[in-house]
Amino acid sequence: MAQSVYRHVDKNGKVTFSDQPPAANVQPAAPRAGTAASTGGPALPYELRQVVQRYPVTIYTGDECSPCSAGRSLLVTRGIPFEERIIKSNEDVEALQRLSGQTSLPVLSIGAQHLKGFSDPEWSQYLDAAGYPKSAQLPAGYRNPPATPLVAVQAAPQAAVRPPAAAPATAPQTPPTPAEGPTPSNPTGIKF
Description:
Helix content is 25%, strand content 15%. By secondary structure, the protein is an alpha/beta fold. It has two domains: 7-38, no CATH class; 41-149, Glutaredoxin (3-Layer(aba) Sandwich), CATH 3.40.30.10. The longest helix has 13 residues, at 66-78. The radius of gyration is 26 Å and the shape is flat.
């Protein structure tokens, strides 16, 4: 007679198999990014999930860019899970320049490889070499995450309105104390 085997993942990600069920007060581990539970969608097939982990695909696009649309269509048609980054602001352009060495769009990133400009045969060759399927194998209902700016938009801090301050009282100056640990003038933090 076969016995039940219980699988338990603790909060640190350690997996334990046992013939005893986990205690009722034990909390299950939070789902990891990219899993079906964390994205709210269906999980990717195992082989595709392995390729995505080794060689994630990111496309850098702009508004009103026909090569960008053609590149996005190629990825969607082949069923490639990808992340899209939109280049809109000057900060985005500067970040793209640091990332790829140029500012022309689109740029396709497959793992650490950056392909500049859209070329269907070149992009397909690199996707094939990475191990992506030639035809869509995505589960029904799978959606790529929405496009986001390359540089996160931060709200400008609002200046606090303060009443005019009275002249500050002068405090007696104390000599600075030596800093503990590494500093720019003492990078190893050696004390004598």
